[in-house]
Write a structure and sequence with these properties.
- By secondary structure, the protein is α+β, with helices and mostly antiparallel strands.
- The protein has five helices and nine strands.
- It folds into two domains: 60 residues, Orthogonal Bundle (434 Repressor (Amino-terminal Domain)), CATH 1.10.260; 103 residues, Sandwich (Jelly Rolls).
- The longest helix has 10 residues.
């Protein structure tokens, strides 16, 4: 079983150099390099130390070994959010972000509808108005965001959006990053 490519991928995802991984796992940079090129095999103890330094363990590493990374998410893959206010339809665009630090969704707002007000939380938020015009409310201050414009803010403010049109719907791509 060749594990080098997966180890290298995990190391790069963690923004670690081979030297940093070697220091954290009490091994040499040369050994890490050989492992990543599948020129040598680790002992179970060495692999466990490497995986620990990468923030995972043997069970998780091998349980995801044969899994295929999902690249394209189709419309039928979307997950509807049911606890939205009247006139608002929200769907999660992706269901399995790993590590789960991003939550992209598509919002459809009927005329004069608004999302629920969210309280302060960690993270940042990005939105892009695909169609229509909305008002973005951040701690009581309103911002007009027009079609093809975007917004970006830290989530440490109470926030919601409203479609202020009396006859047109609004479509918004909303991405929360935790």
């Amino acid at each position: 079983m060749k594990i080098g490519k997966k180890l290298k991928s995990l190391r790069i995802m963690k923004n670690m150099t081979q030297e940093e991984l070697a220091v954290r796992s009490d091994l040499t940079r040369g050994f890490i390099s050989q492992l990543e090129r599948d020129l040598t095999s680790p002992t179970l103890e060495n692999l466990d130390m490497i995986l620990h330094a990468l923030g995972t363990d043997l069970k998780e590493f091998f349980s995801k070994f044969d899994s295929v990374e999902k690249i394209v998410y189709k419309k039928e893959d979307r997950i509807p959010i049911y606890d939205t206010p009247k006139g608002v339809k929200e769907e999660l665009l992706m269901t399995a972000t790993d590590p789960k630090k991003i939550e992209p969704s598509f919002l459809y707002l009927k005329p004069m509808s608004k999302t629920k007000e969210e309280n302060y939380h960690e993270g940042i938020e990005f939105g892009y108005v695909i169609e229509g015009n909305i008002m973005l409310y951040l701690d009581g201050i309103s911002y007009k965001v027009k079609e093809e414009e975007s917004f970006f803010f830290t989530s440490n403010k109470k926030h919601f959006i409203k479609n202020t049109s009396k006859k047109n719907c609004a479509k918004v791509l909303w991405i929360e990053i935790f």
